[in-house]
């Protein structure tokens, strides 16, 4: 059915929620002397850091984002690859299914936060936040991926965990699958498929 599988990173390949939100809490306590709950900040999952900070009223976006990334390192021990993701990527590669990434991470964040897990070689193409002017939920990141990869839209699918991911895929004209293992709920997110585990991806991939 599909011959190109495009993945989001945070909440789809990597379980980063605790690290991302804890470091953001620390930053906001320092910058605004305010305590925010994870629920208050969950909107920040899935969009570029500077976009999230802007929504929180932070004005010095570049410096604050650099601090956020610095504080993220304090919580990096919480980050892990979701169960069965690596096995699924190995199997997809064995099947000859091309895999790629569209992420809201910048290239430097990709290097710092993703490459240490040793999964980069499984992906033919990666589109990061600084590869496009507009970002999720705008379709430009996936459209850029389609342009660079030459993938057939009708045979490509994007797998992510947020409404931003879904809107990006729909706007780009490709199918979307919800990674429920990261999203935790499907409420308000209309998807072509809802996968409870990464291995369920393989059940729907027929070349």
From TrEMBL:
SUPFAM superfamilies: HAD-like. One of its GO terms (biological process) is DNA repair. One of its GO terms (molecular function) is phosphoglycolate phosphatase activity. GO terms for cellular component: cytosol. It comes from the Bacteria. This is HAD-superfamily hydrolase, subfamily IA, variant 1. It comes from Lacrimispora saccharolytica (strain ATCC 35040 / DSM 2544 / NRCC 2533 / WM1). Keywords: Hydrolase.
